[in-house]
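Task: complex structure prediction.
Instruction: return structure tokens for all chains below.
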Amino acid sequence: MNEMFRDKIDISLTVNGEPVEGRVPAGQHLVDFLRGALGLTGAHASCEHGVCGACTIKVNGEAVRGCLMLAAQADGADIWTVEGLSDQGTIKDLQDAFVARNALQCGFCTPGMLVAIDELLGKEGVPSRAEIREHLSGNYCRCTGYEAIVDAVETVARARAQKGAA
Amino acid sequence: MRPFTYERALDPVSAAARAAEVPGARFIAGGTNLIDLMKLEIETPDHLIDVNGTGLDEITVTEDGGLRIGALVSNTDLADHDVVRRDYPVLTRALVAGASGQLRNKATTGGNLLQRTRCPYFYDTAQPCNKRAQGSGCAALSPGAHSRQLGIIGVSDACIAQHPSDMAVALRVLDAVVETMTPAGDIRLIPLKDFHCLPGSTPEKESVLMDGEIITAVYLPPPVGGKQAYHKVRDRASYAFALVSVALIRHPDGSGRVALGGVAPKPWAMDEADAELPNGAKAVMAKLLEGARPTEENAFKIRLAERTLAAMLAGE
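Output:
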């Protein structure tokens, strides 16, 4: 195995604000690295084919599929998972709104939902219900029927806009 | 997923050279399609060359007033770009009609062009598929097969898979040109209309790229103006592939251009069909879909294409 042909890759990245280093198999997916090596089990490895959105994480500010990225590709990346967003308190209002509005039942899709919504709420303006639905179309929930989730997002988006205006 | 080795390329010249030199090598950019196909063992590369560090992620205005879109520009960034939104709105519309936000954040311009069909039989490795396993047959053409989603024109007895891209349909109507780098280090310019291959008897060959050749950019000609629209008809309102999609550019004098998605192995357009635009949707589609050979299950696409264009023309 010479320099060019590597089946183990050294990576150095930031996860939830902390520097992380690792040596990963070439075939390891980013979500498996986060869950297995770092114990960050908030991002769920569910369909593992990029369909369901349960593995959604933020990479360099953008919400992406953790199952469709190799850990090796995360070298140098700035990654945030639902744990980091929770600990920071940046999505507390959103989490509270989810509870208040019963926007979850089994909760399996919730971490992916929260991360995807965090990206949406980071943009300018108050999204319409149609925009919320469109933004979350890549996140599957088999319990709620989505209405309560859209309600929660709408509530938080309006509250944040009011707070910003006040 | 089969074991493979991995390296990072730092520039397109060395990426192309390495890809030609290493047996079983593939480029990886956004990975949104390739990694999925590797999990299913439909794609089984021995070696991945990660091209994300090759610096092909810029959008620049060209000397002639067109746009050069680096191959690594994400679908999100391309759709959001001010010049694209202002001067090439059909492209923004097509991009945001595709996939979901999380996928568009990773999917690249070059990768989008090279994504594989979503034919269910291509994805099911227990089924025969000439594209996946040469000479094994086409399960989509067997009696009772589900072909609702599949192609109706440009298809062959070996394969009726359709190209799944929305972006490519808009690029086709805009007359885009693909820039590549060959393993010898030469730059090639390939009009998008000539970029994808029809299946014929070799459905495994999907583009005119040679071994190791890498897409470096996509060029758009100077803005053509006109009213631009992209309508995508699908089984649900979001996050689904097109049954039929129509990209339209229409000028005040009634002339314009049309390209279709969801119906063929490549974005489907024809100058002779564009010339029929003043005569209405029926005339355009009669020309554009002349010689179509749909299955019983997807014959509805002919009328659907006609009605979609008619609705767009009426909606102006």
